[in-house]
Fold this sequence. Notes:
It is built from seven helices and seven strands. By secondary structure, the chain is α+β, with helices and mostly antiparallel strands. It has two domains: 152 residues, no CATH class; 78 residues, no CATH class. It has a four-stranded antiparallel β-sheet, with no helix packed on it. The protein has a three-stranded antiparallel β-sheet with strand order 5-6-7, covered by helices on one side. Strand 3 and strand 4 form a beta hairpin. Helix 1 runs antiparallel to helix 2 and helix 5 runs antiparallel to helix 7. It is flat and about 75 Å long.
Amino acid sequence: MGHDALPREYRMKRNRMLLFLFVIAAGTVSVVGAVMSADGLGAFLTYAFLIAWVALMGWLFYATLRCSTVADIKAIHARGVFRRRRLAWEDIQDIKVEFSYEGAVQSGAAGVLVHAYGRDGSKVLLPFLDDVHVDVERELGVLLEAWQELRGEDWTPNPEAAVAIHRHEARQKAISTGLTAVGCAFLPLMVLAGLPLFMAWPDWLEAMLSPLWVMLLGAFLVFTLTAVLSYRRRVRGD
Length: 238
């Protein structure tokens, strides 16, 4: 298909838009009820807060509706809540899929996102180009074909951007490896945290081996050590 399939526009689905509006409205009603029933705030402070809250929620809904990704013959336009980016086809270094940690733990959240990388290797999220709103494989194929056709015959990758992209991927994989290691270490940490309940330890060591301390410190050490080693190995292997 390539550039013949352009323009492409990606926005929030109508059903998710209505759900988002419902969540904002329900949250606003709860806040209004809590503030109105609070004692000692005073009429001025109460109404000033409520007006500010409603204005903030209204702006958030409006700004979210304006978020979009548009791909035309000249560039990819990514509009977020706070920022708008224009990536000319010749400036794009790559367009890649990335798995979302939020999607793994939150029902209904996007599990697969798409990012474009600019001339300097900076990563730009393409709003609503995800597995919740579109067929990611199909749309990614369209954008990649368009990029290869429209970037120009004399296009060459930026070496510095390639390094930045590689290091970003190494960081993402290191975080994933660290989280996996924490999950694998959960049972051994539970066993270690329970040892003071069944064995006698010196007082100073028993204080250090409190269950909460063992779980938190152990998870932190496992994650940090695994992530750092994974990142260093991947970077050195480039």
